[in-house]
Amino acid sequence: MAHHGHDDVAPVSMDPRFSEKVYPRKDNIFWHKKSLDFDLIRTKVFVERKRDGCEIIMEWVAFSIIGLLTGLTAAIMSNLEEKITVFRRNHADDIIGGESKSDLVTGWLFFTGLSIACVLVASIMTVYWGPGANGSGVAELIGYLNGINYPNVISFETYVTKVFGVVLAVVGGLCVGKEGPLAHIGANIGAAVTYFPLPRFAWFKNDTYKRYMIAAGTSAGVSAAFGAPVGGALFAFEISKPNIFWKFSVIWKVFLSCALSVFTLTVASSLMKG
Questions:
Q1: What is the mean pLDDT of the chain?
Q2: CA-based, 20 to 30 A from 42: which of 136, 166, 173, 200?
C-alpha cells in the first residue's frame, strides 16, 4: 500500500481569494463584508524606494486639509446649534411675556413644537436618507478600520445626515452629544480627501492611505470635540491598534490634523460670533 505523507499534499493558501476558488460561496459574503485590505506592501524594494519631494509634501497637505475641514465643520455645527437655540428661546420669551394668560400655553406649545419638529426632521433624515449615520459611529469606525464593511458608514449621505442630524437632535433636547458623531464626521472627511482632484492625490486611493486618513479624520473629530489634539492623536491608536502598521511619520501627520482641527474650530467659532 502506498504511503501518502504530508509532503505529497500541496500547501493550501490562507488567502481568502484562493479559498473562494476552493470553497466557492454562492453569497460571496467575504467580498460584501470586507472594507479595507490589511495587506501592506512591505517588500524591501517598496520600503527603500526613493520618494520625490512632491509626494511627501502632498501627504502633509492631505492631512492638513483633513484637520481644517473637520474643525470648520465642528464650528458650523456649534454655530447652527447656538442660533437655533437662541431663536427658540427668544421667541418663546416674547410669547410668554404677553399680558394674556393664554400666552404661557402658546409659548410652551411653540417651544415644545419646535423641539419635536427638530427631532422629527433628524429622524426622517437618518431613517430614509442616511441610515449610516445611526448611532455615534465610533463602534462602526472601529470595525471599518479593522476590515468590516458596515453599510454606508462612509458616504456623502452619512456625512450630511450626521452634521444636521446631530445639530437638530441636540437642539431638540435629546440626550445626545457631539463627541462620537464628530469622530464619525471626521472619518468621512478623511475618506473624502483621498478623492480630491489635486496633483498626486491619486496615490492616496489605496487602502493603506485610506486607513491612515480615516483614522486621522476620526482623531481630528475627537480633538475638536474635547479641544485636546494630543488626546485625539492617541485615540487613533485606540481604535485601530490591532491592524494598522503605524509609521513614525504618520503619527506626526495625524497630530497635525488634530492640532489644525482645534485651531480651526477656535478661529472659525470666534469669527462666526463676530
A1: 81
A2: 200
* Inter-axis angle of helices 207-226 and 53-96, nearest 10: 40
Tell me if 144 sits within 8 A of 214, measured CB to CB. yes
d(CA 132, CA 265): 25
Amino acid at 193: V
Contact between 30 and 20 under an 8 Å Cβ cutoff? The reply is yes
Domains assigned to the chain: 52-273 (1.10.3080.10)
User: Cα–Cα distances in Å, from 266 out to 39, 63, 236?
Assistant: 38, 19, 22
Partners of 148 in the beta sheet?
Answer: 34
Q: What is the pTM of this model?
A: 0.81
Lowest-pLDDT range, 14-28, 76-90, 185-199?
14-28
Distance of alpha carbon 119 from alpha carbon 164, whole angstroms: 11
Q: What is the DSSP letter of 216?
A: H
**Residue 168 vs residue 101, higher pLDDT:** 168
Residue 236 has pLDDT above 50, yes or no: yes
Is the CB of residue 236 less than 8 Å from the CB of residue 216? yes
Amino acid at 169: A
Total number of residues shown for the chain: 274
Q: Which three cell numbers stand for residue 106?
A: 402658546
